[in-house]
Design goal:
single chain; mainly alpha
Length: 169
């Protein structure tokens, strides 16, 4: 099994820029979700006014964005696991914890619970749990920033242009 893992991570490091681009692309979609959460759900709860009109089209887009979160978590976790394999310690561990706290939100404290809780739609769970779910959702912001910085670093070092040249030819 370790031979397969070693081969995978050897491939992974050869295609590091591609993997950063995939993780970044998937996680940038999450900004749509976080904007909706802030401008609609949180704003409505705190001010009584929503700043995001969720039309049926936006609702479908938000559902698609929600489903991109799972591959985003997996792709980005691989970035940090690879970094841990190379001996880097505290930062990838912290980012892995922030990132993987999303599983709790995805499978236990869902957006539907948060919206229903804030709308007073009757739930046996306390409202503070909805706020905890929102906090968990925003824990991915440092991870998104880290991935953006990794991409910028790849651009500055020329890795991104090498990647594009290699993939286009």
């Amino acid at each position: 099994m370790s031979g397969i893992v070693q081969k995978f991570f050897a491939w992974y490091e050869r295609h590091y820029t591609l993997n950063v681009v995939v993780a970044l692309t998937l996680f940038l979609w999450q900004l749509v979700h976080l904007y909706w959460l802030g401008a609609d759900v949180i704003a409505e709860r705190l001010t009584g006014v929503s700043y995001f009109n969720v039309t049926p089209l936006w609702q479908y887009l938000l559902i698609v964005v929600d489903y991109t979160e799972i591959p985003a978590i997996v792709a980005t976790s691989l970035l940090y696991i690879n970094e841990l394999r190379r001996g880097k310690a505290w930062r990838p561990i912290l980012l892995l914890i922030l990132l993987n706290s999303q599983w709790l939100h995805l499978f236990w404290i869902t957006d539907e619970f948060v919206v229903n809780s804030f709308a007073g739609a009757g739930t046996i769970l306390p409202v503070w749990l909805a706020w905890a779910a929102i906090l968990i959702d925003y824990l991915e912001v440092p991870v998104i920033l880290d991935i953006v910085l990794r991409f910028v670093k790849a651009l500055k070092s020329g890795q991104a242009s090498q990647f594009v040249r290699k993939e286009v030819t």
